[in-house]
Amino acid sequence: MRFLGINAIFHDPAAALVVDGRIVAAAEEERFSRRKHGKRPLAFSAWELPEQAAAWCLSTAGLSPEDIDAVAYSYDPSLVAGRPEGDWEDLRTRYAVRAPAFLSTALPGLDPGQVTYVPHHIAHAASAGLASPWRDCAVLVCDGRGENVSHLAGVYRGGELEVLATQELPHSLGLMYEDVTEHLGFLRSCDEYKVMAMASYGTPRHLDALREVIYTTGDGGFRVEPVDWNGYAKALPKGAAWTSDHADLAAGVQARLEEVLLELVRWLHERTGERRLALAGGVALNCVANTRLLDEGPFGEVWVQPAAGDSGTALGGALHLAQAYGEPAAPMTDAALGRGFTDEELGAWLDVARVPHTRPADVAAAVAAELAADRIVAWFQGRSEYGPRALGRRSLLAHPGHARNTERLNDVKGREQFRPIAPMVLESRAGEIFGRGPVPSPYMLFVHDVRPDWAARIPAVVHVDGTARIQTISAATEPLMARVLSEFEARTGLPVVVNTSLNTAGRPMVDDPRDALECFGSSPVDVLALGPYLVRRGEVFAS
């Protein structure tokens, strides 16, 4: 059977396709529309339908809307009631009620009666528990909000979910973190990772005070009382310089988030006795917290959905329906679920753009040589990633052995200099270079300590707190990137390269060849590796 999942209610509109229990395709609308997180200048833009992503999911599988057996919409308007007419939630609910009709217009031939509402946090839970490597596991969802709750704790056994606890709004760890994000001059529901990065520069001196207003309740839930953040640090206008007070606030909020999550997972473990935990929801993108849950929590294994944010509910909704129809989901083994292009298609783009290029006999060796010469390489290969992390498909690569490359890449991307860049490492070598943290770690969802004898050798990827958010590469699943790493090590002695997303500030990650050429042309990147082809800046602008 064929199930299409749709997220189109808060932000990060996305679509996913599950056929016979197997994940076939998944993509965020921003990769097509070029509107980051699906946001437009208008207030109600969060309700953007993933029209292009859904159409692509169907076309890549050779399907038409008529071929779909059911559609999962990851929000259930029946769970939101009693709001004043014209209230924001009333408007959101009325939009969701009309979503089946909107979808049938966007996808002609789709029967509105095929649309099933899947509660937001159930969809999140399915994206973790049903996509994880295990049939039985505990599951924790934590984000800003769903219809009427902000959190779900439960357990999957034999593919069936038992919900053990939820937390009603307005109490929300995700919304609390969003508030602090906005208070520190960043964009809420967008820049929370910047707060996590800033926290490493501060001291959690407000932790005792924060424990009084953010606390668990002993029944699987928690409370977040109203907080005047100005009492900790004055609000920052966007782009203003931050001070130690702001870093200390970030550090305190980050530390308290970690403590509360630890208390929640301990309660969940006591209730379930499971040794495996699957995580989803936007809070699960906090890789520092994830690592602490693995280190100090009671679960022996932790798996995090690579598209843990709202885009992942499209996948979760489709998996939930597949399970309900008696088609158990196959585990998610790769996040490369987006668009891909043949060598011929990529070459045609270069010819149409009249861009000078070469086709080396071994693109991996050629790119390794460029990196060894300290050139920045835009790397565009295979199917794009589902979720917010660049995982070696749409990446900027650089030499990790030069400390200046942190500043250099942040300048290329037009982002804040306090933000770290990440290492990509051969899985077989990760243990000797990085300490605390799981290996393999293919989705960049945990942090690892950098061993002291290696920190001086790869300074560009070492954050101020001595950690790195690594991505491990297996030759069995990523042979091309594994060859780049091996060839780079042969030239430099370092089995590590810098990996950050292929985009510039405020823009979604590059997805198609046009995006790649535009990004290359507008930013100081030295080389573009577009499939098997190399484009060198000096040759382009000399022609």
From TrEMBL:
Keywords: Transferase. Coiled coil: none annotated. The keyword Ribonucleoprotein does not apply. SUPFAM superfamilies: Actin-like ATPase domain, YrdC/RibB. Pfam families: Carbam_trans_C (PF16861), Carbam_trans_N (PF02543). Residues 368-537 form the Carbamoyltransferase C-terminal domain. It comes from the Bacteria. Gene3D superfamilies: 3.30.420.40, Carbamoyltransferase, C-terminal domain. GO terms for molecular function: transferase activity. The keyword Protein biosynthesis does not apply. Residues 3-72, 114-319 form the Carbamoyltransferase domain. Belongs to the NodU/CmcH family. This is Carbamoyltransferase.
